[in-house]
Amino acid sequence: MAQKIKMIMAKPGLDGHDRGAKLLARVCAEAGMEVVYTGLRQTPEMIVAAAEQEDADVVGLSSLSGVHNYFFPKVVELMKQKGLEDVLLVGGGIIPEEDYDFLKKSGMNAIFGPGTPTGAIVDFIKENVRKR
Amino acid sequence: MAHDFAAQILEGSNRAAARLISWLEDEDERAYECMKEIYPHTGRAFVVGITGSPGAGKSTLTNALAREIRQSGLKVGILAVDPSSPFTGGALLGDRVRMSDLADDPDIYIRSMATRGFLGGMAKAASDVVKVLDALGKDVIVIETVGVGQDEVDIVGVADTTCVVLVPGLGDAIQSMKAGIMEIADVFVINKADRPGADMLCAEVSARIEMDAHLRERGWVAPVNKSVAVEGVGVHELWLSIEAHRKYLFDSGRFYESRREKIAKEALRMIHGELFRVVREQLEQSGRLDAAVEKLMNKKLDPYTLMRDTLTEWLSSSQCKRRHDEDTKG
Ligand code: B12
Ligand SMILES: Nc1nc2c(ncn2[C@@H]2O[C@H](COP(=O)(O)OP(=O)(O)OP(=O)(O)O)[C@@H](O)[C@H]2O)c(=O)[nH]1
Ligand SMILES: [Mg+2]
Fold first, then answer.
1. Closest CA to A129 of A75, A101, A90
2. Contact between residue A20 and residue A50 where contact means Cβ atoms under 8 Å apart
3. Which residue of A116, B125, B159, B224 could cross-link B49, Cys pair, CB 3.0 to 4.6 Å?
């Protein structure tokens, strides 16, 4: 049987906006991926533990409350500590464009803001995901 | 490499276990050498199945049960199965949402799995994954099946104790008379006992169990527990029931018997699966399947003859013969 892309979709912090994350989880599942939705209020530690246990190929972080500059780099760092460098890290939500550079430099592979066609997100994941 | 992987898993590496599980799901060749190495270290963990209709509270209950089990210091592995879409092959695995409070306990390992077209309420690799979690050092492994109907009962092939979760308001007395899911319960749980109708459902199920006891002599009578999983109510009692069943299995010798049955079935299933895969591949790739189907369509051939001819041919193939000769030589 062929390898399937396994993805974690997580909401870090206390942000309660889950529409985008749930939508994207569904879109990715429709595109043939196996998507683990973790629910709200995840600490970086919880997200990284889930990524490790699930052997995730992709970790998606969704943030609409302005905490991305704190949480995203923290997740990147913990992933590195666990030796999970080859996992694709993508983020989205309400993120000002001037933060994109900082987030990418800190290790996020891509950021997608509001209005991104979901197809573009799926394509990005499929093109950049690791082989195991 | 297989050796390193197996060693890492036996030392408790989540990461190595996680990768091996992925290979098992993908039926990747790399898995089998590792499995061979860890197999001698398996069979120690106790396996609990949690099954019931969609939305009955299986994940919430699994979460609460895991916390309860951790109180006694035992390490817990959780396998949560959700359905794959038959159309896209993808899956939305949502069981983990209810298990957030277990996420930072290093002695709990949670793995979500999609069914990938496998029926019966389970993922095909479930029994393999149980072995990996066992080798990883988990003492109790809890399997949450997909939300099931009435005859998706594959969980009994893997679990030592099967808990069937029922909720009030989903069906009437007739429902609890039906075979399948009702018959596999070692322990019943009436969850959402905070809702009206729980007492009545409890009475109905108890009556049904009593009736069954008249029909068939059994060493174990399934207890009926009530729980409010969201509040953790009744979960301690549920664990006591599971432990009582476990004790019964050991004291009566059923444990050994039932493990033996499971191992035999599993071995046969694996041989069946691989034999079928090889035969099918050969028939498809040589174009012979197409040709035969054409004949079946035109009624120039019947499937019974096709089946027998295929079998005869495979059994007399040179490989098989050599194997047979070797075996009889001793
Ligand atoms: C709907 C909404 C709500 C709903 C949320 C319902 C829910 N369950 O999600 C309710 C009414 C509850 C709500 C409450 C609040 N909200 Co509000 N809300 C919105 C609103 C109008 C739309 C958000 C939305 O659902 N969009 C639709 C989804 C599909 O889009 P999306 O999430 O952006 O996702 C897309 C992309 O961003 C990307 N994406 C998103 N996540 C991810 C993840 C990955 C991995 C990837 C690859 C891509 C990706 O892909 C998606 C598709 O293109 C926004 C304004 C806006 N225009 O965005 C404000 C907004 C987010 N809310 C805001 C605020 C302030 C609040 C409140 C604090 C208000 C208050 N004072 O009470 C509360 C906080 C609630 C909480 N607990 O966190 C602010 C946030 C400001 C900020 N960032 O600093 C916003 C921006 C409004 C504003 N302009 O002020 N809100
Ligand atoms: N009132 C009440 N609600 C409960 C109880 N247990 C679970 N729930 C709720 O029931 C809903 C479904 O719970 P889950 O644990 O996801 O159920 P499930 O059986 O795992 O669902 P699937 O995996 O989708 O089949 C959630 O909204 C829970 O909060 C309970 O004891 N009482
Ligand atoms: Mg569930």
1. A90
2. no
3. B159
Chain A residues touching B85 at Cβ < 8 A: 29-30
Minimum Cα–Cα distance from A25: chain B residue: B92
Interface test mutation site (partner B, options A7, A8, A38, A53, max chain B beta carbons within 10 A): A53
CATH for A6-126 is 3.40.50.280
- Does the distance separating the beta carbons of B93 and A37 come in below 8 Å? yes
CA distance B327 to B330: 5
Angle, CA of B56, B237 and B228, to the nearest 5°:
35
**Counting atoms of ligand 2 from 1, which one is nearest the CA of B193?**
31
Say if CB B135 and CB B42 are below 8 A apart: yes
Structure letter (DSSP) for residue B41: G
The tens digit of pLDDT for each residue in B169-208 reads 876 545 555 667 788 999 999 999 999 999 999 998 998 8
The reported pLDDT for the residue numbered B126 is 95
CB contact at 8 A, B225 and B188 = yes
Q: Which residue ranges make up each domain of chain A?
A: 6-126
- Residue B329 pLDDT grade (very low, low, confident, very high; cuts 50, 70, 90): low
Q: Which of B50, B59, B60, B194 to mutate to test the pocket of ligand 2 (most atoms within 8 A of CB)?
A: B60
pLDDT in tens, A74-126: 999 999 999 999 999 999 999 999 999 999 999 999 999 998 999 999 999 99
> Class of the B42-252 domain?
alpha beta
